[in-house]
Amino acid sequence: MSQKITITISDKLSDRLNAVKANINNVSALCQKAIEWEVYRQELILGAKLQQIKDKNTMEAIIERLKLEKQQYVERFRDQGYEEGYFDAQNMSYADLIEVIKGDEPISKTQLWQEWLGDKAKDIAEQDNEFDLDAWIQGWQEGIAAFWEEVKDQL
Question: pTM of this prediction?
Answer without folding.
Answer: 0.57
